[in-house]
Amino acid sequence: MNAPANKPPANNGPLVEVRGLTKYFGKLLAVNQVSFDIHRGQVIGFIGENGAGKTTTMRMMVSLDLPDYGSIRVNGYDAVAYPNEVRRAVGWMPDAYGTYDFMTVFEYMDFFARAYGYKGAEREMRVREVMDFTDLTPLADRPMNKLSKGMGQRLCLGRTLLPDPEVLVLDEPAAGLDPKARIEFKNLVRLLAAQGKTLFISSHILSELEQMCDSMLFISQGRIVHHGTSESLKVREGHPGVVRIEFDGLPETFQEWTTLQPGLEIFDSDKKGVRLRMQTCTPESRNTLLQGMIREGFPVCEFHLEEVRLEDAFVDILSRSSQPVGGRPVAQTPPDLPGGAS
Amino acid sequence: MTGDHFNPIVVKELRQGLKSKSFLAAFLGLQGLMLLSMIIYLSAATAGGEDFGFSNAFFWAMIGLITIMLMPLRAFSAIYQEVKDNTLELVFLTHLSSWKISLGKWLALIIQTCLLLTAVLPYLVLRYFLGTIDLTGDLRAILFLLLFSMLFTAVGVGISGWQSKLLRRLIVFFMVISLLNVPQFLMFATLGGMAGGFGGILPALPDYLMGIWVMLLLMLYFVEYGASVIAPPAENHAFPKRLIGLVLVGSMLIYGHVQGVEWLPVLAFVCILPLLVDNLCEPVMLIPSIYNKRLPPPGVRWLFFPGWVSGIFFLLFVAAWFYLGLRTAYPGVSGLSLIVVNFITLMILPVAVVLNINPGTGKWKPAYIAMQTGCVALAGFLIAIHSVNQFQDVRALIRYFPHANFFQLFEPAYRNDPRTGVGVFVTFALVSLATGFAMRKALAGMVRLSRNARGHDAVTPART
Q: Which of A93, B6, B293, B462 has its CA 20 to 30 A from that of A339?
């Protein structure tokens, strides 16, 4: 497709802008009014259980699927109206990719370099450069259907990097990899992030995403249920939290006192102290708790909020997201398509 | 690393294709068959006879088998195989357009067929030295076979994008059944007295050239059709497809008129029928960028927007053109307007019925094809009942049923019966009204976008 007659204005805003994205498969609502922004240089983790709508959202972002409602703009271009412009800006690495028969790793990379418009020496240089970066050079002559999962993932990442896209959308890039391959892959992603690439990565290995990402998007049943940094996810004021309290000798009456306080529960204790779960964990509630213990004369010598593990936070968010949320806009019905889209 | 100017798909397909078992089998098989043919030829020559008929027939039948049947059959999985292997989407994300992908697939297969045919040339020369062969005629015949091979390969590539396994298998089945006759045809044609070779049965040069032109346009159409199946919805492939269709029909009608070939309008109709069906099966995409592209002037551009709505306008335009073509070809025949009006009704009947009952159908193309198939079956049933029992009620019903009318209208007595005219026009009026009702929403959207589209303002991909 040619460039649009009237090019979008210079885009100083987000690199990717997703608004009210909704997708039905038949009557199944797969993605429900998803909205978020991705700014240049950001590394965003996209987390959700199987069937939450991660891959569908990503496929719409790279213009491979059509949304039923809502819009996606990449670099100011609408993904539906200008798919070719969007495809030039985005590199897509699917969770599974097919192999070509009778083709070596080098031939595969060479084909895609040609398809991305590289010619002559420039193509050869780019292919070598990417193969070196992804450590594929020793595998250049190996038939691509004889690669291990980890090698295949590196090849797929290499192909994605060939056109030097502004934003990389990686769907479960570490899925199925052994620990060594996973570390290698993680290092590659870190290198890309260090180069200033914008990355949007889905994964179910939360600890890995935590180390790589600036920000995280949690999706459940097609809806975004949390968007923020991993720190903000763990310190969720107003929600349940765990405080560690150590005493100069654990008072015998402490357990009894706790049962009389609303919203408090001891779920772990040792000879030094306890871990106390607070139903509502705000600075005020923690202050009230500490003052109450001092008033009672408990010999508190340490009191701190425990860091929430990302997995726990994820499970907590998922359990809350399954409850009805007041005021959330109701998604539209499946689109009425006179003439049908075949 | 060479071949920068080649389509990358051609390079990739050749890298794969030339190593594939099917190509190697075809190559070695053809060599074996050619050797066998030469042995038969040598036997005839050493026997001192002048009758090279059987060896000629065998020679051409085997070339036909490989080029017109085996190689095009490989095309039927060209695009679908990549969809199945999950490799095509990655190619979509490159700078290759859907047209280049489809064209590359087709060219790669044609190059492989050419390689096979090139390997046959030494045998052709050998035959020339052994007998009384018209070498230029044979070369022309090889070119003709190659053109047919290219056409069937283009049909295969076009259809290979279909996701419905059932439809693809049905088409392949019918193609194989039809193409199985080709070697036999070539064999019997050459046996029928053409001791000088297959070149002797080719048509006169103007018809030959016209045939080449029509085949080239059909190839272009089917390759473009393959591209349209895999293209993003924002691309307007209706424009090139319909333009090719108009050039094709125009050429055939004009040539038929100039050369006085009466049946050419009918052949033109057969050639354009797949396009008309394809147009009516397309969904309407209300994407502003489609309506923002450089298209012909307002008015004419309504023939070229993608989707069934403009497909109806295109059908009306082509039908009017056909009417003029038929009038010119058959000046003394009355009731031609009935044939044309009935054809329009027949084509848009599923639009009037399905899109009013279930406007949100997500399976519009299968619904269209299923309804047309059902109507044809019902028409056959009604005609069969009438031909056996001569029920007048059934006859009256047939007059209001466009599919049953389609064949009956070629009978002058039936066509000239005033009751038939009433039936055809009343059905046309009712179906047109219902179609107008079904298209109102989509048409309103198209009008709005064609007036106000501003390219990047596209926000919501309303599909109607």
A: B293
Enter the tokens of residue A211. Answer: 């180390």
User: What's A222's DSSP letter?
Assistant: T
For A18, nearest residue in chain B (alpha carbons): B459
pTM above 0.90, yes or no: no
The pLDDT tens digits for A110-139 are 999 999 999 989 999 999 999 998 889 999
Contact (CB<8Å) A63/B232: yes
Chain B partners of A159 at a C-beta cutoff of 8 Å?
90
In 10 A of CB A260, how many CB atoms?
A: 7
Structural domain count of chain B:
1
A336·B359 Cβ contact <8 A: yes
Our CA-based measurement puts residue B95 at a distance from the nearest CA of chain A, in whole angstroms, of 5
CB atoms inside a 10 Å sphere around CB A221: 17
**Do A188 and A137 share a domain, yes or no?**
yes
Are B455 and A81 inside 8 Å of each other by CB? yes
Rg (alpha carbons) of chain B, rounded to whole number? 25
Give start and end residues of each alpha helix (H) in B160-284. 165-179, 181-191, 205-230, 238-259, 264-281
Q: How far is B215 from chain A (nearest CA, A)?
A: 27
Examine residue A189 and state whether it is found in any structural domain, yes or no: yes
What number is the ipTM of this complex?
0.78
Alpha carbon of B236: minimum distance to chain A alpha carbons (Å): 9
Tell me, yes or no, whether A332 lies in a domain.
Answer: no
A223-228 and A215-220: which strand pairing?
antiparallel
Q: What is the pLDDT of residue A159?
A: 92
Range of the domain at B158: 1-226
Question: What is the tens place of the pLDDT at every residue in B386-397?
Answer: 888 777 777 788
